[in-house]
Amino acid sequence: MFEHVAELFAILSTPIRLKIISAVCQREKNVSELLAEIETTQPNMSQHLATLYRSGVLARRREGTQIYYRLQSERVATLCRAVCTQVAIELDPQSDLESSQRLVPSAVRS
């Protein structure tokens, strides 16, 4: 089990992949739409989309010459939302969480 979890976290360890997941959470998008939202090159975007597709995080469909990507795993979206929300709370200077409740070490926040 821990090996599968580590594989999932490895897939999610790249900021651009998290941005892609966030971008397709509400609706499917093609590569052009994703490139308009996420600053990267087309080859780099395609590489990350392929990784997310092969891992089962994203699904895709072809319509003419366009390929549309959508979220395949709602569990991954839930996990990403939970972690991103927690980190945002911790990075907020107004947050008064105890150190035992923090995911982000204090050295990172400084």
Automatic annotation (TrEMBL):
It comes from Piscinibacter sakaiensis. The lineage of its organism: Bacteria, Pseudomonadati, Pseudomonadota, Betaproteobacteria, Burkholderiales. Signal peptide: none annotated. GO terms for molecular function: DNA binding; DNA-binding transcription factor activity. This is Transcriptional regulator SoxR. Keywords: DNA-binding, Transcription, Transcription regulation. Residues 1-91 form the HTH arsR-type domain. It comes from the Bacteria. SUPFAM superfamilies: Winged helix' DNA-binding domain (SSF46785). Pfam families: HTH_5. The keyword Transcription regulation applies. PANTHER family: ARSENICAL RESISTANCE OPERON REPRESSOR ARSR-RELATED.
